[in-house]
Amino acid sequence: MGKCRYTRRDLLGSAGAGAASLMAASWLSSCRLNNAEKTQQLKADNKKKTHIITLSFDDGFKKSSVRTAEIYEKYNLSACINVIATAHLKTFSPPGEYIAGSNRGDFGLWNELKRRGHEIMPHGYKHANKARLPLGQAKDLILRCLDYFSKELKGFEPKEAVFNFPYNSSTPELESWLPTHVRAFRTGGGAINPLPHKGQVKLTCTSFGPGNCERDIEAKIAELLQRDSGWLIYNTHGLDGEGWGPMKSSFLDKLLERLTAIESVGVMPAGKALSQLTFA
Predict the structure, then answer these.
(1) Which of 58, 152, 171, 227 might form a disulfide with 107, Cβ 3.0–4.6 angstroms?
(2) 195-218 pLDDT, tens per residue?
(3) What SS3 state is found at 81?
């Protein structure tokens, strides 16, 4: 079957950005591709993408991470999964009900998902809010997190990593210091970043919770597609009721189907976007 592709103008069209996702869903029933076709097309199109979307899954919930990886693999995509270094240990003290209520994965799982092509990045040593800590303590926790990842995650290199601040909460002092240890960091701010470029170290994102985040994701994607270019980083958590601001797994599946059919859109994790799509 030939590949069905659409431009962002097809999706926005006369119905407006708000209706784009609904229109796309009705157009794509015949756009099924096998993995070989997808792989070939992705390699050819990567440098042509003008709209990058990163769904940045935090906290490392075991059930949600496994399901997220399965859905991404269906579309030959790599998931962006950010995990707390010590969350799998019995000594871990969950900082709130949204993390406490679910099992977290361990580095056996993270190594397996990384082997399958997914991006596993650090989300803190114990999910502490770094902006509320003395600077020295905040730095120490980040370094301990990076050291733990270096020991437990095969092939992990801090200088290639994106550090994802817990609570998307950072300080100017930490933002100035951290690039000496990692490639980039994610913190709170505007949802839409410039396209990946040399020297880009601060990545900003948005999120929604504690309820279902699906409407908000749709709105942010429509906003991105109205622009000539941009990189949307949306901080997500779990699936099917797990974590803060969850989405349904069925929603994620249909969303990725729609997005992979838009010519200008690339769906990829943050580290991959920085390493493969950096523009001068």
Answers:
(1) 152
(2) 999 999 999 999 999 999 999 999
(3) strand
